[in-house]
């Protein structure tokens, strides 16, 4: 994750960026941009969404630093969008670091019946939805 040592700000920053990606339309736009630079009309045609809706989602992605914008040098009305590769690499690294299985530490709760010397309760194992 980022070089700051404040785990709260790191979590907040990662949550903010993941929230941007939580919208399926933004993920479709990012997927389209993985194929290379696109203009608004190409994105609209490919995704079947209105230009103003595409513009809204592109603005959110730009504000998150994931998408870059370039105006045409000859006609500034034409705008091209592309992925910011460094920002994408940083996001992937942050997600990878946050969800690194090596971070999981063995730990026993410091409260409850085991802490007070009571009998251990029956062990209940919860399964993830993928294991069911």
Layout: helices, strands, pairs:
Layout: H1 7-21, H2 24-33, E1 38-39, H3 40-47, H4 51-63, E2 67-71, E3 79-83, H5 85-98
Antiparallel strand pairs: 1-3, 2-3
CATH hierarchy, class: Mainly Alpha
Shape annotation = elongated
Portion of residues within helices: 40-55%
Number of beta-strand segments:
3
Weakly predicted, low-confidence segments: none
How would you describe the overall organization of this protein?
The protein has one domain: Winged helix-like DNA-binding domain superfamily/Winged helix DNA-binding domain (Arc Repressor Mutant, subunit A, Orthogonal Bundle). Helix content is 45%, strand content 9%. It is built from five helices and three strands. Strands 1-3-2 form a three-stranded antiparallel beta sheet. A hairpin with a 7-residue loop joins strand 2 and strand 3. The longest helix has 15 residues. The protein is elongated. The mean pLDDT is 86.
